[in-house]
Design brief:
The complex is a heterodimer. In chain A, strands 4-5-6 form a three-stranded antiparallel beta sheet. The two termini of chain A are 42 Å apart. Chain A is α+β, with helices and mostly antiparallel strands. Chain A contains 14 helices and twelve strands. Chain A has helices at 84-88, 96-101, 108-123, 129-158, 161-182, 204-227, 230-236, 244-249, 254-258, 266-269, 290-313, 366-377, 383-393, 397-401, and strands at residues 8-9, 35-36, 39-40, 44-48, 60-66, 69-76, 191-192, 195-196, 283-284, 333-341, 344-352, 358-364. By secondary structure, chain B is mainly alpha-helical. Chain B has a two-stranded antiparallel sheet. In chain B, α1 (3-36) crosses α10 (233-258), α5 (119-129) runs antiparallel to α6 (133-164) and α10 (233-258) crosses α12 (276-297). Chain B starts with a helix and ends in a 6-residue tail after the last helix. The chains are: A alpha+beta, B mainly alpha. The A-B interface holds A 44, 46-47, 52-54, 68, 155-162, 165-166, 169, 225-226, 229, 231-232, 234-235, 382-385, 387 and B 33, 36-39, 133-134, 137, 141, 212-213, 215, 219-222, 224, 295-305.
């Protein structure tokens, strides 16, 4: 039997509790060496990444260790910088989705959705009900696909090779579904301002339903194999706990924030697309350690399955897109629109100058904030825990560096 | 034949077995892990991919042997040999059958453990000489881990030595022939008194092997490749080979001590004798399969948890079990002339 440790459904508020006090000097290079019995010992500074198997891409951590214990940590970012925000200034509004796909490349739909929402709100476009449902359906399918990548790599981080390949087996089916709908496996460019680019193909309903029926069981199997393992539980419980005020001070969102017990979910608290019409619970944790983050993400997959079924059952008839001009010319103004991506709040802030391109485009991603909190929570843990903490925060370097 | 020539041939035979075994085990690991992970592993070169590993060995042999400029050259070159040689030594006392053994040592069990305990020195040398921080961490972990688990591994087999009254592995196997009560094979594993012994032996053995879930020294998700990070070509090959060779030795010890060595249950020794080495190898490979199965399934423990289990649990439990077993055994055999 798996210890669920009070994963509460549906609760919480955004109210800040107390103020943030770091309580220690910021991470710096080389402290005074400590002496033991007249022997002078030195701390070791090691470079974890950008080429390290467990930094999930090109994250670089400069870690100062005393033996195996971490004394200070520094994150160094920017190894995957592609200038997405600057590129956006020379793209037309309907092209922005392609850039967002390459930000968080594992859950692209959520980024596309954010751009589409921002443009629609500025142009005051009424999106047809069917388009809203298709977007929500695709977003939740992407969420499961993305969480499966997290699950697999988290397993790899602990040394359990099998979980990754089991997760990839299920993700493969999801990618097939996404490919059938959008024509692409990862860089979809499917959600456009005004709706979606194409209607759902014939027979997709049965395809998704058969996946859901199988995945109900597979999800519990995944959870049994990894979460039910005694060694795994010893590795994650109490590791990398983030206090609530720290989480708020660092601007954490998504599962990382909810694991600390604060039930903020963009889908529920700032609803968009079809989410107001769906029934779902927001799982929250208690102390915000790696185990809570694990449990919250597993529960999110169950909720996503629930929403996928509701979307299929309630799929309205009608057009898949509103009538929008071929070239979008957005009136002067600025807007921020956000979606709940697999890694927290993914938002875009657009400043429009009345032309066909945005004058300034800002992309807010959950992972960037999760990266910053590493410096805060790593000290005091062992080197092996650093791997677990990075894994449990589910950092996607594509959206950190852009 | 001169005794020297015989000795030389025996050493060559051990070396041949070790190399052959390494090639087979690497193939087996890939296929076993492949099937556990819903994929195939090598299938294209040769029947069922059997030629894949020989090709890889050829590749390792022909690759450039890179020595980074910052390393301690002497230690760096010496370390693979220090890791490899004791692995070879450990074959000396294993009884493949009643007559097939490289040498019949009276202290065979002790000798095998002694040989295996040299390996961490080589790993520590490799880690230190590499001038790489990850390698150093791997080497240090390995040393700490081996010191903590050498003791419980040795202690865990003491009840068997008491029971058999010898450390000669061949004699321990022969003591396991026949049956209890006419139908239970006299294998040590079927004797309830040895069940805790087996569990303790298996845990300590896995740690000794650096096998998952205790593969601290080369934890690839934490330490990249641990002590082997800077090694290339055949130096890496030797480190790699030694690991598989040790798997064979620990599994062979398990088979010898607990599973009746080269014998089959209920079959008279005379009938088994001609096929004994094959039976022994089969049992050993089953043991290795279990090690691989664990490797494909389990996550890894953390170094401090490993140390705590070693010092706080395994050693006290081992000592307590030796006292309990020894007392009961002494009382049981009192007056029967068994000392």
């Amino acid at each position: 039997m798996i210890d669920a440790r009070n994963i509460i459904l549906e609760t919480g508020s955004l109210a800040a509790e107390g103020t943030y006090n770091p309580g220690r000097p910021p991470a710096s290079i080389k402290r005074t060496p400590s002496g033991v019995d007249g022997l002078t010992t030195e701390h070791l500074i090691i470079n974890m990444g950008p080429q390290h198997p467990s930094t999930h891409g090109v994250l670089r951590l400069v870690i100062e260790v005393d033996g195996e214990e971490i004394v200070a940590a520094e994150t160094s970012l920017g190894y995957l910088h592609r200038g997405i925000e600057k590129l956006a200034e020379s793209r037309r509004y309907e092209q922005l989705g392609t850039l967002m796909d390459r930000g968080d490349y594992v859950s692209g739909i959520h980024g596309e959705q954010a751009v589409a929402l921002a443009v629609e709100r500025m142009l005051e476009i009424e999106v047809p009900a069917k388009a809203r449902y298709i977007r929500t359906l695709m977003a939740e399918i992407t969420r499961i696909a993305s969480h499966l990548v997290w699950f697999g790599t988290f397993g790899l981080d602990t040394g359990a090779m099998g979980q990754f390949l089991y997760a990839v087996r299920d993700r493969e089916v999801l990618l097939d579904i996404l490919e059938t709908v959008s024509g692409q496996r990862m860089m979809f460019n499917y959600v456009r301002p005004g709706g979606v680019v194409a209607d759902l193909p014939v027979g997709i309903d049965a395809m998704i339903r058969s996946f859901c029926d199988g995945f109900d069981g597979y999800l519990e199997e995944h959870h049994d194999l990894l979460g039910g393992n005694e060694i795994f539980q010893h590795r994650v419980k109490g590791v990398g706990a983030i206090p609530r005020d720290t989480a708020l001070a660092f601007g954490l969102t998504g599962a990382n924030l909810r694991a600390t017990g604060i039930g903020f979910d963009v889908r529920r608290d700032r609803p968009y697309d079809a989410y107001p019409e769906l029934e779902f619970d927001v799982p929250v944790g208690t102390i915000g350690d790696a185990w809570d983050r694990y449990m919250v993400r597993m529960e999110e997959m169950r909720q996503a399955l629930r929403m996928i079924r509701q979307c299929l059952d309630g799929m309205p008839e009608g057009e898949h897109t509103a009538r929008v001009p071929k070239v979008l010319r957005v009136p002067e103004g600025e807007i921020y629109a956000a979606t709940e991506s697999s890694r927290g709040e993914t938002g875009v802030h657009i400043i429009a100058d009345g032309s066909v391109n945005p004058a300034r485009f800002h992309y807010r991603s959950g992972s960037l904030y999760a990266c910053q909190v590493l410096e805060e929570i790593l000290p005091g843990h062992l080197l092996a825990d650093a791997v677990m903490i990075v894994g449990s925060l589910d950092i996607m370097l594509g959206e950190v560096d852009r | 034949m001169s005794p020297l020539l015989v000795a030389l041939l025996r050493i060559l035979a051990a070396l041949g077995l070790m190399l052959f075994n390494g090639v087979i085990l690497i193939w087996m690991l890939r296929r076993v892990l492949g099937h556990l992970h819903l994929r195939y592993g090598p299938i294209h070169n040769g029947w069922q991919g059997l030629l894949q590993t020989p090709y890889d060995v050829l590749k390792l042999l022909t690759k450039e042997d890179v020595t980074p400029s910052a390393v301690d050259r002497i230690l760096f070159a010496l370390a693979p040999a220090v890791v490899f040689t004791p692995s070879l030594l450990a074959y000396a006392a294993l009884p493949f059958s009643g007559t097939w053994k490289i040498t019949a040592l009276d202290t065979g069990l002790l000798f095998t453990f002694a040989a295996l305990s040299i390996v961490p020195i080589g790993i520590l040398m490799a880690g230190w000489a590499s001038a790489n921080k990850w390698s150093l961490l791997g080497g240090m972990r390995s040393a700490a881990q081996q010191i903590a688990y050498e003791v419980p591994l040795l202690l865990s087999v003491l009840p068997i030595v008491m029971f058999a009254g010898t450390m000669n592995l061949g004699t321990i196997v022969e003591a396991q022939s026949g049956t209890w009560l006419g139908f239970i094979p006299r294998w040590n594993i079927l004797f309830p008194g040895f069940w805790p012994t087996f569990v303790l032996f298996w845990i300590a053995g896995l740690v000794e092997l650096n096998a998952t879930p205790f593969d601290m020294s080369e934890a690839e998700s934490e330490l990249v490749a641990g002590f082997a990070s800077e090694y290339s070509a055949m130096k890496f090959g030797l480190l790699f080979l030694s690991e598989f060779s040790n798997q064979f030795v620990i599994s062979a010890l398990g088979v010898t001590l607990f599973f009746g060595g080269w014998m089959l249950p209920w079959v008279p020794v005379e009938l088994v004798a001609p096929f004994a080495p094959f039976i022994f190898m089969f049992k050993v490979y089953l043991g290795i399969f279990v090690i691989m199965w664990i490797r494909g399934t389990f996550p890894r423990v953390r170094i401090d948890q490993l140390m705590q289990v070693g010092w706080k649990w395994l050693i006290p439990i081992n000592l307590a079990w030796i006292i309990v077993f020894g007392t009961v055994w002494k009382l049981f055999t009192l007056g029967q002339g068994v000392s």
